[in-house]
Amino acid sequence: MRVGDRAFRSIWLAEDGWRVEIIDQTRLPHDFTVRPLDTLSDAATAIADMWVRGAPLIGATAAYGMALAMRVDPSDRALDTAYSTLMATRPTAVNLRWALDDLRGRLAPLPADRRAEAAYARAAAICDEDVETNRLIGAHGL
Fold this sequence. Notes:
Elements: E1 2-3, E2 6-7, E3 11-13, E4 20-23, E5 34-37, H1 40-48, H2 55-72, H3 76-87, H4 94-107, H5 112-141
Antiparallel strand pairs: 1-2, 3-4, 4-5
Helix pairs in contact: 1-2, 2-3, 2-4, 2-5, 3-4, 4-5
């Protein structure tokens, strides 16, 4: 979407390459607020408090939440904690579970020192896949 002369997605990596930024959807349509997500806890809050809305965006936020967690501590224990923390935000959300299962399945077999990079790459791919799906839905509707 365009806001002024700038194109935005609902979720993206900040310029520093690790922090995640979102449009706070609780503030729309009257206020356009960008919120940074710096930690696993921030990502969990964004989902639980509905700063992000819609199944695909919830899944993407969960994926980036896993990446944020792996950046701090890529251990097996931290992977399990991130999974359970994010799953508890909306236990019935299908895209949330799918994204978390996908990330855990991809990260668990990796050596700890490769998990953060792999998590960020997969989270970005999930976002790109969702954008393409929405583009195709629009093209089909047209």
